[in-house]
Amino acid sequence: MRAQPTVLGDPNRPTDITRWAERIARVLNGNVSFGSSMTNGQTDTNLNVWKATGISPVAPNTDFTIKHSLGRVPLTIVGQDGTNGGVLYRSPVTAWTSTTVTLRCTTASMHYNVILG
Description:
The chain is α+β, with helices and mostly antiparallel strands. The chain is built from 1 helix and 6 strands; from the N terminus they run αββββββ.
């Protein structure tokens, strides 16, 4: 479900404000979702995030780049998991951009899922 951008009617009337608040409550009441898979562009995703999967480099703590289509510089890693206990973290050398992020992984060759937001 997508939130309605506007409510028809006078915004100062209590009934319109109530209707607006009810719509927001309905959206936030269990309907905020990362989607049902690690692909981007799903209709059930209603968060402005980018999801990526891959394998980290063979050497631990080595820069690798992920392309994204957020159209802005991501703020952080929202979520991650991997196959060998490694942790993905921001490269201290290369700044993130509106099209790429550069990460490192604490372990070698980790199959990862990462969500950027």
